[in-house]
Design a protein that fits this description.
Length: about 400
């Protein structure tokens, strides 16, 4: 197969917008097809965009699109449920701070930037089948429309249709053992250090950080009211409720915020400072995130002229703090490979570049998932030192100008 000059991108979320931008920089014309009739504004809770994800956006000139977004959190503090502090890490001085923001804000900024840069989006296009010819691939959508290009890229998320078209036996997402929640505690008087995120392990796990006035972080009543950012002196928290049998997102949302808050208060009774934070949280300031999910190792990332990118191939759990960043990295690397190599070689090189990294990060997150689901009797679980843990994830860079060879791992 020759090099690609045109691409169909299935999925109009964060990964879809970024791959559209990256392909355009690589000289490949891409159209993004989204199954929903309108853009997914307002969907999702908060997420973190780590330094490595920000660097990848910088490579394709999209970093300025997110400059005004998010709350900067450069450091981390690890402790236990009794209020003991074990480790503090202020972050790497030569890297930007991790940004906490609503997923919807990141999506909108990147989608708008992609559209303004010339990436074409089409909505109401649900993929139903793909047909490959010797020199092209054709997508058929539920409305009967078709589209043809040199390659097709599945950026359609953790429940990817493209993944099943590549391999009918491909695994789906796994349940991580907990239901996830977030919220805003108002007037609790719990002290936090500016720019630090706290991770308190023990019988139950809780993460939390201070939120200044005007900041949007994707939890609490701001989810329904974008003007509700009167957060000065308040604290955002994220909590895990262990549950052996998963509930679907729909089933989780059938239970009221007030009932979930009652259950969380019972679970976190005696937790420092979880008990206090939850006591100062109103039901309308609780965000039901739902079951924690992750992708197991996906055996087949590409077939013929079709390839996966982002959560469709490599979704780590939210415990990694790397979901968005890894999807952005992979989109940029895929475009770089397609710029330099024929299609088959490009897909192989892309997988060689990305699979070891994303699976190592996913494996690391499984330990945190286990601690959240089962608790730890000795406080902090057996995690690497923060400098070691964050160096591998946060210090990763992509050299766009370096040519890709057919065997980049050699």
């Amino acid at each position: 197969m020759n090099k690609a000059t045109t691409a169909l991108v299935i999925g109009g979320g964060v990964a879809g917008s970024v791959i559209g931008l990256a392909l355009r920089k690589a000289g490949i014309a891409a159209t993004v097809y989204e199954r929903y009739p309108v853009a997914a504004d307002g969907v999702g809770a908060g997420l973190s965009l780590a330094p490595n994800g920000q660097q990848a956006l910088r490579v394709i000139g999209a970093d300025q699109a997110i400059d005004s977004l998010g709350l900067e959190i450069p450091g981390s503090i690890f402790g236990d449920a009794n209020g003991n502090i074990f480790t503090e890490f202020a972050g790497f001085p030569d890297l930007p701070a991790t940004k906490i923001m609503p997923r919807a804000d990141l999506f909108r900024a990147l989608a708008d930037h992609a559209a303004a840069s010339g990436v074409r989006f089409e909505y109401g296009k649900r993929l139903v089948s793909v047909a490959e010819a010797e020199d092209a691939v054709t997508a058929t959508f539920a409305d009967g429309d078709t589209a043809t290009a040199d390659i097709l890229i599945g950026a359609d998320g953790i429940r990817s249709t493209v993944r099943t078209l590549i391999d009918a036996n491909a695994p789906g997402p796994e349940y991580g053992g907990v239901l996830s929640f977030g919220g805003i505690a108002r007037g609790s008087d719990v002290e936090t250090k500016d720019g630090m995120m706290y991770f308190a392990f023990g019988r139950t796990f809780l993460g939390y950080y201070g939120v200044p006035a005007g900041a949007r972080v994707g939890v609490g009543r701001e989810q329904d009211d974008p003007e509700a950012t009167d957060n000065d002196g308040n604290i955002a928290w994220f909590a895990s409720l262990p549950r052996t049998q998963p509930l679907t997102a729909a089933e989780t949302n059938e239970i009221s915020n007030a009932e979930w808050l009652t259950r969380l208060r019972e679970l976190y009774a005696g937790h420092v400072p979880g008990q206090t934070l939850l006591a100062h949280t109103a039901p309308e300031d609780v965000t039901i995130v739902g079951p924690m999910e992750l992708m197991p190792s996906v055996p087949t990332w590409h077939r013929g002229r079709i390839v996966l990118v982002g959560d469709s191939a490599q979704a780590p759990s939210s415990s990694s703090g790397q979901g968005a960043s890894l999807a952005i990295e992979s989109a940029v690397e895929l475009a770089r490979c397609l710029r330099d190599l024929p299609i088959a070689d490009a897909f192989t090189a892309y997988e060689q570049l990305r699979r070891p990294r994303v699976e190592a990060i996913a494996d690391g997150a499984r330990g945190a998932n286990k601690a959240k689901a089962e608790g730890t009797s000795a406080g902090q679980p057996a995690l690497p030192a923060p400098e070691e843990m964050f160096r591998y994830t946060h210090c990763h860079t992509i050299d766009w100008d370096q040519p890709v060879t057919a065997n980049p791992s050699e």
